[in-house]
Amino acid sequence: MTNSAMTFRTTGYGSRRDFLSRAGAGCGTLALASLLAGEATAAPDPRAPLAAQLGHHVPSAKSVIWLFMHGAPSQVDTWDYKPALARRHGQTVKDFDQSTGFFAGAGGPIMRSPFSFRQYGDSGTWCSELFTRTAQHSDDMAFIHSCFAHENNHSPAQFQMNTGMARMGFPCVGSWVTYGLGTENRNLPGFIVMYDSRGRGTPKSRASAWGSAFLPGVYQGTPVVSQDTPIDNLTRPGLLTDSMQRRQLGLITRLNRQHQRRLPGRGELEARIRSFELAYRMQMAAPEALDLSQETLSTRTLYGLDDSRCSHFGRQALMARRLVERGVRFVQLYSGGFNNDDCWDGHSNIDKNHRQFAGETDRPISGLLTDLKQRGLLESTLVVCCGEFGRLPLVQTGGTGRDHNPLAFTTWMAGAGVRGGTHYGATDEIGMKAVENRVSVHDLHATILDQLGLDHERLTFRHNSRDIRLTDVSGRVVREILT
Fold it and tell me: Where would a tag sit more exposed on the chain, N or C end, judged by fewer CB atoms within 10 A?
């Protein structure tokens, strides 16, 4: 089993897998076992692993859309307005720890923001010119300005943001959520991930960001691309009729049952058998769910699909709405790709970098919030937006950009159970450090789980003789931003 997709071991299964591939019933790298809602078990368990489950308390949200700004946007150039940066531009920060950023010793003097700010909504939310469309929704958004992390490098910081730990080998938030709650659509994965498919590559943390680690593989995320064919090999070959495919699947099932009788108690094999049937059903369900041609022209325009600059992220956002509308529990969208120049990693020129990526995301995010609200889905969908850390309010030596800063960043949430127009916590005068009501990554995770009806201290999984949880041994629900 891999972190990116469920794969079949070759021992004992090679001939059936080859036969399935030739028959056109395979699903490529799709995590087939993650589709086993309501039918099969990935372990000897009396319930189906993804059957919809009740949480620990009444939930505010049924689903989550997480907008991950890969590469780390600068808080002081987006949502954390600091007039002191302009007043103190060019000054040296006394006793600054040069090991804070990734490039030790490259922290220069204070640098003003190159972006203008203004206030929005009844809440008077300050926002830079980068997110003028999204800022129109500020009265529906709650901002946590005092977030902090522990790592100053992208990969471990993304591991921490996604799994609670700054190293590989732990389940991500989406996996924990589907483990705790299952899914409401038996024909679609409970956890779907989308990232930029235009040659930028995966996030720096790669598939570990949506892996299930020691949780059963049924709970890992299923990657979907936003261009061309979203999921490989879901189209039945032209010469293969429905009845022919059903007969082939029946034969494969009988062969696997024979093998299972020789290996009793293998829940994994049972899951694989059932996955063939689910893959068959997905040939109808998934293409329909991801078919944006069904949307009106005005809806596609709302998300920016008519603008080449932002249409790729707009497609992701629109797919996310269609997926939660159909009962998918957790959808995570990544803005930006693997290389530094392909994500929010504005080391050399913060102005150029952030204008590009805000231009790619502002209209789609605004469109998503508008669309969810118009359809009544914002009441049951929690939207989360952040990066893996923030950026220093200093210029990085040798350019006009900013280095990494794990000491402060802003996260905003909107939708189900969120107190709109709220601002919680604060950084210091120049946005260097979170100093008031500091919020850790575990606190963010505890808050997300709480809105879904899950108690982060009770959601555990026994592994290596220990009951492990997403929030490890800490975490507090940030109730100040909730209704």
Answer: C
CA 27/CA 18 separation, integer angstroms: 12
Q: Which domains, ranges and CATH numbers included, belong to the chain? A: 65-237+311-481 (3.40.720.10)
pLDDT in tens, 431-482: 999 999 999 999 999 999 999 999 999 999 999 999 999 999 999 999 999 9
- Alpha-carbon distance of 226 to 12, in angstroms, equals 35
**Pairing assessment for the beta strands 390-391 and 404-405 based on DSSP bridges:** antiparallel
pTM of structure: 0.85
Query: How far are the Cα atoms of 101, 103, 278 from residue 284, in angstroms, in the given order?
Result: 49, 50, 10
In which element (H, E) is residue 300 found? Answer: helix 297-302
Per-residue model confidence as pLDDT tens digits over 343-370? 999 999 999 999 999 999 999 999 999 9
Task: Annotate 428-458 with DSSP letters as a single string.
Answer: -TTSSSEEES-B-HHHHHHHHHHHTT--TTT
Average pLDDT taken over every residue of the chain: 86
Per-residue burial over 207-216, b = 16 or more CB atoms within 10 Å of its CB, e = otherwise: bbbbbbbebb
